[in-house]
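G.,

No rush on this.
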Amino acid sequence: MLRHETGKLIMHFTRASLIYLAAGSLLAGCHRDLRPTDTNKIAVEVRTNALALVSDYNSGNVEAAAARDAPDYVGVFHGTPNTIGPAADLAGMKQQTAAGKAHWDIGEAKVTVSRAGDLGLFEAPYTYTFTDPKGTTQRESGNWIAIFKRQDDGTMKLWRSIGSDLPAATPAAD
């Protein structure tokens, strides 16, 4: 509150005005960016990253594939312990590709982006084919769910990867 005293203006802060000033300062630092998020652009970014990761893996460039992982990456695949962190993911991919020829085919994908644009969900059927050095081929089909998370540097990195195989086809009855 301002008060006139002997021809001079003297600023007099009451406790209430100091509280309002402090609260206003705190709230000013907590504002949200209310501009609309371009979820279509983010969906393209997520799809591009997911398909590039698969391409890196299929070409044997597992270092590039693992570089797409977020620092707090977790991979969950049936029948195996969870993979925690990019280093563990890289070690697992190196082991897979060293044991034989591995190839991952991805079917038609669906991408969903959070309203805030900080998460992108990539869902697609997959077929994983592995051929060992003796020529024996194994094939597995399932569903891959990959969640990409916006990082502090603005990039979208793979945060969670979930592979769920489908049951083997039932032979047709004669």
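When you get to it, here's the other one too:
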Amino acid sequence: MDLIDFILGLALGGFIGFKIAEHIHVTMFRDILVKLKVKDSDMLTMMQDLQQDLPEDHEDAMPRVEVKVEMVNDQIYVYRLDTMEFLCQGATREAVMICLADRFRKDFKIVLSEEHGAKYLKESPGT
């Protein structure tokens, strides 16, 4: 029972501490903006200006990973095309996508051709 109480206290303390720190940071940021006399309309204008400054192909700036996909015994295997390094495996398309996202932990674009197994990662009709 002591271990359960300890774990619950630790989890509750961590959660409360996180919320307090979040509140402090939001309050401090808001105070800084007030002291600098920055209004919500100014922030919105800055955001729109920054969006206009983005190049048309800004989405293509994401890192590209060329892959080769194989299916062996109902398992999908994914390899990096340039080095044939094993990246991940899964039983379904969704499992492979989650595995790739966990492995790279950032935005990336998978580049896959029909000749390198694109059929295994295509969405099934009805999904």
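The chain has three helices and four strands. The chain has a mean pLDDT of 84.

Enjoy the weekend,
O.
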